[in-house]
Amino acid sequence: MTDRAPAAHSLHFRRALLPGGWEENVRIGIADGLVTTIVQGAEAQPGDERHALALPGMPNLHCHAFQRGMAGLAEVRGPGDDSFWTWRELMYRFVDCVDPEGLRAIAALAYAEMLESGFTRVGEFHYLHHDPAGAPYADPAEMSRAIVAAAAGTGIALTHLPVFYAHGGFGGAPASDAQRRFLHDVDGFARLLEAARAAAAELPDAVVGVAPHSLRAVTGAELAALLDLGGAAPVHIHIAEQVKEVDDCLAWSGRRPVEWLLAHAEVDARWCLVHATHMTAEESMALAATGAVAGLCPITEANLGDGIFPMPAWREAGGRFGVGSDSNVLIDMTEELRWLEYGQRLAGRARNRLAAAPDRSTGQDLFDAALAGGAQALGVEGGLAVGHSADIVSLDENHVSLFGRSGPWLTDSFLFAAGRGAIDRVWRRGAEVVRGGRHVAREAIEADYRRALARLFA
Questions:
Q1: pTM listed for this prediction
Q2: What SS3 state is found at 436?
Q3: Does the N-terminal or the C-terminal CB of the chain have fewer CB atoms within 10 Å?
Q4: Which residues participate in catalysis according to the annotation?
Q5: What DSSP letter does each residue of 133-153 carry, written as one string?
Q6: CATH architecture of the domain with range 58-377
């Protein structure tokens, strides 16, 4: 499905969520994959494709596609306390058997499921680079090409984030053998980045950024070199996900991870700090002032027992955020947004925590903020507007949980009651990729995935 943007055409919706809110009778003109016109209060014209409810596609700002293949395989209790660190050992064992073809098939299923749930662009935080022995492939971007092929085959937009990973702990500690498939020096990473950019150029609107894996995996000097290589592209980094990570950073440097990063790098609006779960109020204030995006992954953070992001301090400081599917244990855009709000309700023992002000819709404010923050983090413009990619999600107005709703109540009912079951169709660059709630190539993608996993598990 590389770039199958159809000829110029128009979609007519009885209601559509535009940047200013829900509008009635919206006619959207599309050509070359882009929105060319938006007319409100317009009657449908002959030849228009007519639908009921439209929302913009949501960016998924953080994904490790290969982990879709191990979803559900880490839910057996170990002999001691299970944590992120015990889960990571299982992930290392799984990653040993993933080859380029297996990665492509696993990623394709993940990306199809993202489109079915309303995600239309993915930020692929990609650190699986080398062969199972840890040796570089002849093409340093062999595994990146598998990711590009999966994006092309499903139609999802791609922000590719090749990951720099050189060390196994703070201060340049040696990496373990289990990390051998991830590792580069700066020169090797520069070659990977060049090859990845060439591979991504095959897609119509791909973006390529850089991703220092974490402060555990990169030294200060290496971080500075990566930022030079990335230029103005997006910069993503895992940070402050675990209490142990914070404690280890304090022991190494005397500073907490976010505190150390702000003191040693010019963090700005290009940056996405993934998780940032364990921040002080002072760190939240300082980080929010940079314009960076917090990349939040509520399903994965709950699954791994990470903790709950300090949203009250972040919102008070004007912080921006988006959501991602991370480990892909469950891929569901509405579930990520719902649990972002519900986590805050549980932590604060109060309701409607992410509404921006009294008398505001929680669902609408949550959706709008995640749309804007996710688009910023992935280096694109979000929302339904002229000149933007025609990435549109259509809801079934006959879904029982949407009956009688209008305005922000539609968004609230979609996120908190109906969920992904209300999604009928999805267009990516104007091409229909989901119909009747299923990806148009779902059957073939599933069969390919099953073959790949049977071979990998053998």
A1: 0.97
A2: coil
A3: C
A4: 275, 326
A5: TSPPPSSTTHHHHHHHHHHHH
A6: Alpha-Beta Barrel (3.20)
Q: In the chain, which segments carry CATH 3.20.20.140?
A: 58-377
Distance of alpha carbon 115 from alpha carbon 121, whole angstroms: 8
What residue ranges of the chain are covered by domains with CATH 2.30.40.10?
9-56+384-443
**Core vs surface per residue 98-124: b (16+ CB within 10 A) or e:** bebebbbbbbbbbbbbbbbbbbbbbbb
Distance CA 29, CA 11 (A): 7
pLDDT at 80: 85
Are the CB atoms for 12 and 45 separated by under 8 Å? yes
Question: 62 with 326: CB under 8 angstroms?
Answer: yes
Dihedral sign for Cα atoms in the order 132, 161, 106, 70: positive
Q: Domain spanning 9-56+384-443 has what CATH number? A: 2.30.40.10
Kindly give the residue spans of alpha helices, DSSP state H, lying in 117-242. 142-154, 186-200, 220-230
The pLDDT tens digits of the residues spanning 63-103 come to 999 999 999 999 999 888 899 999 999 999 999 999 999 99
Q: Are 330 and 71 in contact (CB under 8 A)?
A: yes
User: Three-class SS of residue 120?
Assistant: strand
Helix (H) or strand (E) holding 90: helix 84-95
Measured CA angle at 99 (ends 96, 103), to 5 deg? 105
